[in-house]
Amino acid sequence: MPQESSQRGRKVEAVRGTQDVLPEDAGRWREAERRTRDLLLIYGYSEIRTPVFEHAELFRRPLGEGSDVVAKEMYEFTDKGGRQLALRPEATAPIVRAFVGHGLYARGARTKLFSIGPIFRYDRPQAGRLREHFQVSVEAFGNPAPSQDAELIDLGAAILSTLGISGWECRLNSNGCPECRPAFMAALKAFLVPLKGGLCRDCAGYRLEHNVLRILDCKEESCREVTSQASDIMAHLCPACAAHHAGLEGYLKALALEWVRDPRLVRGFDYYTRTVFEFVPPGKGQQGTFLGGGRYDGLVELLGGPPTPGAGFGMGMERVLAASPLAAAPVPKLVHIVAMEEGDALFRAALAACRDLRKAGFRTELGQEGKSANSRMRAANSAGARAVVLVAAAGLTVKDMRGGGNVDVAPGDGVALVRALRLVLSAEGQ
Less CB within 10 Å around the terminal CB: N or C of the chain? Predict the structure, then answer.
């Protein structure tokens, strides 16, 4: 007799940096996504869905070859047609591609979009940031004024609030624009070159040569000590950027939103201009960021569209769920359909009753064929069924599993069945 183990295949584990969301946790995800979607719709944003893979060029150009994402973290592959593709490492560039490709800019002066979905980065897995993680991406096109930046920050605060998260800190900075940022980057590099011996390996090498701004938000203590005396970008802003930032602060004061000016705050992608912001738990750095974003006024034009201002943010679902006390939305109470005898006729009647109740909005399960009526009743009890519909040749009986009364129903009368079930459950407001 062959051994059972010889019939089994090798167990395949989940890929490192990914996770399964099990049924007991999926309810919290659904509730968080529902609340977030509802709020985004109230703020005037419309949902868009883009593919999870794109041409790799879409990310290389706007994110910058010097960004950590492009240089180290993109999942790239060549498909059977020889095209160089990438799993999306962020969602703004795909949304802008769709905005340009479908001519959404022609529909009105302002377009506001959001998406919820997975993004992929080959990085060291950490709490709240896996190699596949889920992000809410919020993008607003057409408004160059600082009032748009203020609306986004207000929206970020509102989303965290509706998810039950408080005590966050909003960090704010400006990254300047293509007119004034190069001078600041040159000054920063000139300041750091003589001190490169005190920088970490990444900052002394690749970042110093290709992405000097990222040295400012390096979390290595040695790098933070070296940059502590570096010039503040605010001293290098052109008049237009300085006025934009001052206007934003005025709007935030009008909204009674508190923030902290963080001269180290930069975003990792080349497309950001002027406003950058992040929401973090108190005392936490970038690794604890709930959401972050800013303005990207040149991105639409870079990807082939007309000059169009833009601003937005991304929010990590895993991180906000880890901090949120949000409970799963209540699940509708379960009803089991139990055929009291074997035979096709009774199971056809049981299946019809199941269909009638589901159409009426009841969460309904059909007892398994091949089991005794007692086994089906035990299964209903174990599943926590609130009521059971007993199907017999003489008719149907709705049974209250909490000891209340039963209600008999004539065979095939779906309307009466629904009415009877509502009567049985009426003690709990259903």
Answer: N
Q: How many residues does the chain have?
A: 430
Structural domain boundaries enclosing 113: 23-180+237-323
**pLDDT (tens digit per residue) in 182-205:** 999 999 999 999 998 999 998 998
Distances (CA, A) of 428 to 185, 332, 358, 388, 421: 65, 12, 19, 16, 12
| Residue 38 phi, psi dihedral angles, 5° rounding | -60, -40
Q: What is the CATH number of the domain that holds 41?
A: 3.30.930.10
Q: In what order do the strands lie in the sheet with 111-120?
A: 46-47, 111-120, 132-141, 310-316, 291-295, 273-280, 169-174, 260-261
Q: Which two tokens stand for residue 72?
A: 């180290």
Closest CA to 50 of 9, 96, 1: 96
Q: Which two tokens stand for residue 271?
A: 């497309």
Judgement on whether residues 339 and 294 belong to the same structural domain of the protein: no
What rounded mean pLDDT belongs to the chain?
90
Q: Give the DSSP letter of residue 265.
A: -
Count the domains in the chain.
Answer: 2
